[in-house]
């Protein structure tokens, strides 16, 4: 056990720090001469992608959050409808499947009972095909799905998923590019998107340099009972993943909200005991987010903002800004902004002395309903 963990105290810590190489492995052999290969998704993927006019993504937990990020990418870049749903709900309703819809299951283990049941249901529901994005090559979902793409993250032992998530996002970015090509993405644009992906391993390493300062920051969370995570647009899904990480391993009640929705409820909870964590890349929603954050400050909430280096929030007592590397929005920002939130959850859990790799009441793979 100690040998496998190497110099790391926990598997989760090791897996967080392995993300650059894991993402590099996800991308390896799936890109050729600067363009993405359809065959990444299986031998017959090209014919299926040609017919795809919409996408249904089904998953649980962290994998569901990867799907939520992908929805922004697919709808923006491919201009086809994409819905994302948790498997335990999807399997018990009667979803309408429009012609030409591709079913996608996302799963680290490939064995999650609800996702597997949803996949089985999908195979008789008139989808164009079924595709699984998965980290376990021998798993039930990979065997039963018509198309599959391995994330190649390597074994993930920590119950709280980290490298599985960022590699799922890399896989979904490749899928977005392959679908976008069919929607008229020009080769020049494709090359620019692929180049963004190729930069990821280096940017992940750069982001991981925040580790020490986040360890210090974590001290401010140890005595808290609640935390609020805010993002807008695609970063709302990143905020959801950050909140999930914190609650899973530090047992602090954490909730994510789309920042624009604050005024419709959660603002009532904000006071000096409620830390508010925000993810603030330099995107088109930044000014909106800034005014949402002012609403938090005005209620005495302490703000922790992970921000683009070019963005200023007016440093004062109640605002702590942590500088991220400068990133390109499309694919890079959601993948990279996840990392400090993983580190924060990890360090808070260590300070609280919880069982980081085996949090109470949770299982790595939930194979029963
Ligand atoms: C469990 C794990 C989570 C994981 C979820 C979905 O709840 O604790 O970390 O995200 O299952 O698992 P899957 O293997 O389908 O991605």
UniProtKB/TrEMBL annotation:
Residues 45-185, 217-359 form the SIS domain. GO terms for cellular component: cytosol. Its EC number is 2.6.1.16. It is found in: Cytoplasm. GO terms for molecular function: carbohydrate derivative binding; glutamine-fructose-6-phosphate transaminase (isomerizing) activity. GO terms for biological process: amino sugar biosynthetic process; carbohydrate metabolic process; fructose 6-phosphate metabolic process; protein N-linked glycosylation; UDP-N-acetylglucosamine metabolic process. It catalyses: D-fructose 6-phosphate + L-glutamine = D-glucosamine 6-phosphate + L-glutamate. Keywords: Aminotransferase, Cytoplasm, Glutamine amidotransferase, Repeat, Transferase. It comes from the Bacteria. The active site is at 364 (for fru-6p isomerization activity). Homodimer. Catalyzes the first step in hexosamine metabolism, converting fructose-6P into glucosamine-6P using glutamine as a nitrogen source. This is Glutamine--fructose-6-phosphate aminotransferase [isomerizing]. The chain holds residues 242 to 610 of 610 of the full protein.
